[in-house]
Amino acid sequence: xxxxxxxxxxxxxxxxxxxxxxxxxxxxxxxxxxxxxxxxxxxxxxxxxxxxxxxxxxxxxxxxxxxxxxxxxxxxxxxxxxxxxxxxxxxxxxxxxxxxxxxxxxxxxx
Length: 110
Known about the structure:
The chain is 30% helix and 17% strand. The chain contains 4 helices and 4 strands; from the N terminus they run E-H-E-H-H-E-H-E. Strand 3, helix 4 (79-91) and strand 4 (95-98) form a beta-alpha-beta unit. The longest helix is centred in the C-terminal third of the chain and has 13 residues, at 79-91.
């Protein structure tokens, strides 16, 4: 499965480390806004020794152009804040797995 990682904070990094151990997953892109992560090799950011050949980008639109089966979205807990990100992922026709807690019951707040 081809994956894009969208958000490399503590939760996104933990998810990426687990997925990196699985031979059936391939990272095809990574997005984060942290200037300390942008431009760095993904393996270095998530704490792996072997390079993955992916650089972290702050240009979500560019990264989302990649052919991927799933976008792992881990940027925030509140739907109102992450909705534009989710909309951009959907516009590119990607499937999403998100850590946004409000997505479990968005009608409760929105």
